[in-house]
Amino acid sequence: MSRNYELFPDDDNGNVLWQMVEDGNDLKEPHEFEFSIVFKEQADLEKCAMHLLHQEQKVSFFQEDQHIEGSDLWVLNIHVTMIPEYEDIEDLEQWFTRIGQEFNGDYDGWGCMSYLYEYEEDDEQLHN
């Protein structure tokens, strides 16, 4: 299968989505995406998390281990289940960037955990 650059532009988001296709993911099925915003202050993260909860977003957060410069960063993850489409990811990145800035945070990217299962008749087990 050859890459359609209209669906998968030659940039970070297009490249990751294309890699998902090459890895066997069905992009017509919903996937859970995790968009991240990082904060220096826990209070700013909490305000942002409350704002996103009022926007009916699913969130989680944690504190990273201490960094070289001595600061502990707080990471807010926004969990979005959606059909992976380039334009939707771009729109969400812009929205989360604006929200992060509003609450003194920095948008830090997205990830998507995908699992591929194969059914083997011989041992009737599921494999990753």
TrEMBL record:
Pfam families linked: RraB (PF06877)
SUPFAM superfamilies: Hypothetical protein VC0424
Residue ranges constituting the Regulator of ribonuclease activity B domain according to the UniProt record: 11-112
InterPro entries: RraB-like_sf, RraB_dom
Gene3D superfamilies according to UniProt: RraB-like
Superkingdom of source: Bacteria
Record-given protein name: Regulator of ribonuclease activity B domain-containing protein
Originating organism: Acinetobacter soli NIPH 2899
